[in-house]
User: What shape does this take?
Amino acid sequence: MDEQTIDTIAMQLTRLQRIRDRTAAQIGTWTKDGLEPAAFGTLLRLCCDGPMRSGALAGALHSDASTVSRQVAQLVAKQLVERQADPADGRATVLVVTERGRAVAEEVRRRRNENLTRVMADWAPQSRADFAQLLEQFVDDFERTRPEMIAAMRRNWDQTFTGTENIRDDS
Assistant: This one.
């Protein structure tokens, strides 16, 4: 692969994440509902995927259970999500978006789409479509190869920092 191209992609992804984090922090101070920006992502995921248990939601968000629990608590407190008995197992609960939650999610989606439209206002329609297709392919491939990446990074960490590359327990 062309190393310069890969470096450019990696640097631009890092740059984008920093810009998004900073923007979210600035917007977060302006929202009247006081929800963390990540809680909106949780709400949107529930709107897209439908009712689910908290553990399944954490998996869908690629997040840990404690983080999702905190976000869900905010959504429940604001009456955007409610806990209901799981139809498959009444002892468990599922998270369900309320009508108010759907209205808030639709408003967030509308504002998000307006902002992305603003960003790409000068792009040709075909460029937007190509970017959408390539970005979806990139994210799908990233998700698919994520376990391999994590395993490789752990091996490299062990080799570089602990010197355990060839240590085996043959006993």
In short: Strands lie at 81-86, 89-97. Helices lie at 3-28, 37-49, 54-61, 65-77, 99-119, 125-162.
